[in-house]
Every structure is written in structure tokens, then in C-alpha cells.
Specification:
Blueprint: H1 2-27, H2 33-43, H3 50-97, E1 107-112, E2 116-121, H4 124-127, E3 137-144, E4 149-155, E5 157-165, E6 167-174, E7 177-184, E8 188-191, E9 196-201, E10 208-216, E11 225-227
Antiparallel strand pairs: 1-2, 2-3, 3-10, 4-9, 4-11, 5-8, 5-10, 6-7, 6-9
Helix pairs in contact: 1-3, 2-3
Signal peptide: 1-23
Region (Disordered): 58-98
Protein name: Globulin 1
Length: 230
Amino acid sequence: MVSARIVLLLATLLCAAAAVASSWEDDNHHGGHKSGRCVRRCEDRPRHQRPRCLEQCREEEREKRQERSRHEADDRSGEGSSEDEREKEEEEKQKDRRPYVFDRHSFRRVVRSEQGSLRVLRPFDEVSRLLRGIRDYRVAVLEANPRSFVVPSHTDAHCICYVAEGEGVVTTIENGERRSYTIKQGHVFVAPAGAITYLANTDGRKKLVIAKILHTISVPGEFQFFFGPG
């Protein structure tokens, strides 16, 4: 009776070992060179130790597969980063090919009201590396609607103003001295940093458009407009 139980136990262990080995080999496409050696080592073990040995082989192979998957994921991530870097480089090249061309979409509107609007071009050193030498300068465009009045303001940058379109009257106040000028298309006037400036569009049909070159003096490439009474 005891011998029969021993035989039955051994048969059960052998069947379990065969099932584990079969399952493990299916998961690993019948095992690679290294997994085959692991299985052969298990075959040299006593029969009652083989199932546990085969299970350990299976766990080792599973860990190796996970490690390979992580490496492959890292490689794909690295390839993605390289592609992103190449795209950025290509964008920079595209910018550098036409660094001196700016359309209306290149400007950001910072002020808008019933009287008109003020749009500012982003810093030159952000547009192209070729323009880093003029990073202290900015460009803005003021548009005053027909028969409108632009409230007094001043900025912390020296400003050279070119009248691109229309006509009007501009007044500057510097060191307590007030000066007024009649301006029209093609005229140029200067507004020093800190000088209060206000203007009026005297045309009843056309906008008054003034292009401004600002030389920043506080923070390179940065400036602010301050609005207040003249």
C-alpha cells in the first residue's frame, strides 16, 4: 500500500514536472539556448526537485523578458527624443532661412480699445539666433482709429517712431517741457524713455499707424508701457 502511494506520488510529480516544462517551453518558444541549459540542469536534479527547479527557470526567463522589454522601451524613448530634437533643429533652420521677414501674425496684441490697438513683435533673440545681436531692441505698431485720442503714456525704453500711415498731432512732455507736432505719413519723431506722450488721429477716415523701434534700457529686450494723465 505504501509502495503504491509512493509510485502514485512520483507519477504525480513527474506529470507536474512535465506540465510545467511544457508550459514554460511554450511561453519561450521551446526555450532558447540558455533556457535549454536550465531545463537540462533540472533534469539532473532528483525527481521531486524538478518541478521547483523548472518553476525557477521559468521565473528567471520571465525576469529576463521584462528586462529586455524595459531596454526596448528605453531605446524607443531615446529614438523619440532624437526625433524631437531633429524636429526642433529643423524648425530653427526654417526660422534662420527667413529671419528678417515678419507678417501680422508675428506680432502680439498687448492693448486693444475703441481708440485702437498696440501690437508688439516678440524679442529678436527668440525669433532667430542670427538676431541675438539686436536683442536690446523691440518693434511695436500703434494703430489709432479715425478721430481717436490715445491717452498719455510713457515707457522705460527710448522710442523712434515712424508714421507709416495717416496723420495727426503728437505731444511729448519731458522735464516739464511740452512739445506738440503735426505728423503725417513718412514723418519720424523721437520719444525718450520716461517722456509722456499722447496723440490724436485728426483724419476722419483713415487710421493713424505708427511703427516704433524701442531701445530697452532696464532689462535687455524687455519694456513696459505706463498709462496715466499728461
